[in-house]
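Below is how a single chain appears once it has passed through the pipeline. First comes the sequence as given, then the structure the pipeline wrote out for it. We keep one example in the README because the format questions we get most often are answered faster by looking than by reading.
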Amino acid sequence: MRRDRVVVVGAGMGGLAAAADLARCGAEVTVLERAAQAGGKMRQLRGIDAGPTVFTMRWIFEGLFADAGERIEDAVQLVPADILARHAWRAGGRLDLFADMARSAEAIGAFAGPEAARGYRDFCVRSADIHRTLVGPFIAAERPSPLALVRRVGWGRLDALWRTTPWRTMWGALGSHFRDPRLRQLFGRYATYCGCSPFLAPATLMLVAHVEQDGVWLVKGGMLRVAQALQALAERQGAGFRFGAHVAEVLVENGRACGVRLADGERIAADAVVFNGDAAALAREMLGAAVRSAVPDTPDAARSLSAITWCASVQTRGFPLTHHNVFFAEDYAEEFDAIFRRRAICAAPTVYVCAQDRGSGEVAEGTAERLLLLINAPPDGDRRDFVPDLPDLAQRTLALLRACGLELGLPEDATEPTTPTGFDALFPASGGALYGRASHGATGTFARAGGVTRLPGLYCAGGSVHPGPGIPMAAMSGRLAATRVLEDLAGGVRRTIALPAPA
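Resulting structure:
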């Protein structure tokens, strides 16, 4: 009896998770990836993680491996982070957030006073409540409409849904907990984890704080190990991988997706196609005119944040780095006004530094260490007139770090930069946006594409679709897409992949 054939286009987190589930459930799976290795945005330059650096929501990966009769602990070495992040301000002040909530409250009290510590505890309760309300009905389920979300949460729990406050901005809601503008900056930054401005994103995104409080892990050997582990898992289930395989077109016959055509002309037939790229590539006919109506387009103005990054192996001095570090200037609103309204980068952007040799060991003084430096940027990498002045931006970035006490250089022979233009080349149709569509406004998140497209036989996975960006959410999107593929190929017979519940 012939097995169902599924082609997965792209070996990012969503595609890898979908491939593992589909192959485990008996499908003949072929993963086509135009790059030389799996990972998608999870990539390395000069041996340095150049994409996502934070591993959270471990329960999603535990469920993926457990369903295959395996344990993630046997595939990836994860070290729990004691310090979630170290924060510093140009105007003065330094604050660590800890995995232990009580330690964080104590540190915040010493930093900004007892009222701020109480505000933090209340904020943690609120973010946990939002997460508890949405994790099952939204994160671990197909993309709902607003009305469908109400039904899933339950008419008897409208008070819980009301407390997610989607009509209020995250920045405004944070003011209910923190008077110190530095603390509002610190916790407002969680909106950027989804590529959003805290001044435009709904307060619902405060749930990210609970996600971090629930656990952050460092990955021994770098984040790319996670992609390699998922690829190996999928291969053990029977999935096949082809790298350097550029998919030029999704083939359509009799009103449904029936395979793909590679750039070299080869055609691969399939009963279903899972697309793990930016969903806008479908709408913009980068995979053929026949699939342009499969998903809604993402208008340029609705794109999420992009970034300018530098991967560097350099010596540092003057500031005690930990694994995750954030350096702030004073005017946070100006940073996002510049990006989303003026399509520019402000004079002193926030700088994130991932010191990849820190956190599970110490770096000897005078030793070069591996760093990823990141500043937010507008997602205009596909505009010819968008040409950022990298030397000037590097100097502005280093000036802010210097004002916060960190000294380092970015010599050309030890540094690899990536701009929005580079990200757009890596992830076509994105403009360099790293998180798909920005979830701005009360209903912004519902505008994202879902895993099921308008074209039968074509499905989507990855950070540009529901439930959202980030390593665990992209993996969840792949699991959700795989679930629907299996159900639809079985003629509507419910064949559900058991999704894990958080601890």
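The chain has a mean pLDDT of 94.

See the next section for the split statistics.
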